[in-house]
Specification:
Elements: H1 12-24, E1 36-40, E2 46-51, H2 54-57, H3 64-76, E3 85-90, H4 94-103, E4 107-112, E5 137-139, H5 144-156
Parallel strand pairs: 3-4, 4-5
Antiparallel strand pairs: 1-2, 1-3
Length: 159
């Protein structure tokens, strides 16, 4: 796996978000909504990455977050992703926020807010629900303009 991007600690979220943006570009060839995600271990190592594959694999659960978390779990050999951080270009939906809680991800860092289906603060806040078994630290709006532009450009070509 790839090492952490060379940057100071304050810039690490932005550096990993740039990697997630690069991953989102893979969706274009399959007609999937351009969302990319990566999982970083507590030691700063990249342990999982993915992009939306719903169209490419006819998979309703093929969201970038799920793909990246599955990859990370396989890399670690366990489903618990305690101490890990998920970086994703779009605020996770209810399904993905539930998976964050279930996998015990420590932090989620996302770019664009999803005012229609976001479940980490926009519409719902499942990741930080006090009744959940685990609460995830949420950092939103990292490189928001760039992440939003990916989505706006994608949907502009389909209208």
């Amino acid at each position: 796996m790839r090492e952490a991007p060379a940057c100071n600690p304050a810039g690490s979220d932005a550096a990993w978000m740039s990697h997630a943006v690069e991953l989102a570009a893979h969706c274009a060839q399959f007609g999937d909504v351009p969302v990319g995600a990566c999982v970083v271990a507590p030691d700063g190592a990249l342990i999982g990455e993915g992009w939306n594959v719903r169209e490419a694999e006819a998979d309703p659960a093929g969201h970038a977050e799920i793909v990246a978390m599955r990859h990370a779990a396989t890399s670690l050999g366990r489903w618990r992703l305690a101490g890990c951080t998920l970086f994703v270009t779009l605020e996770p939906c209810a399904m993905c926020a539930g998976a964050l809680v279930q996998s015990r991800i420590e932090r989620v860092v996302f770019g664009a807010w999803d005012v229609k289906a976001g479940a980490c603060g926009s519409v719902w806040d499942l990741a930080r629900d006090p009744l959940a078994l685990h609460r995830v630290e949420v950092v939103g709006g990292v490189d928001e303009q760039r992440c939003s532009a990916l989505l706006l450009d994608f949907f502009a070509t389909r209208r």
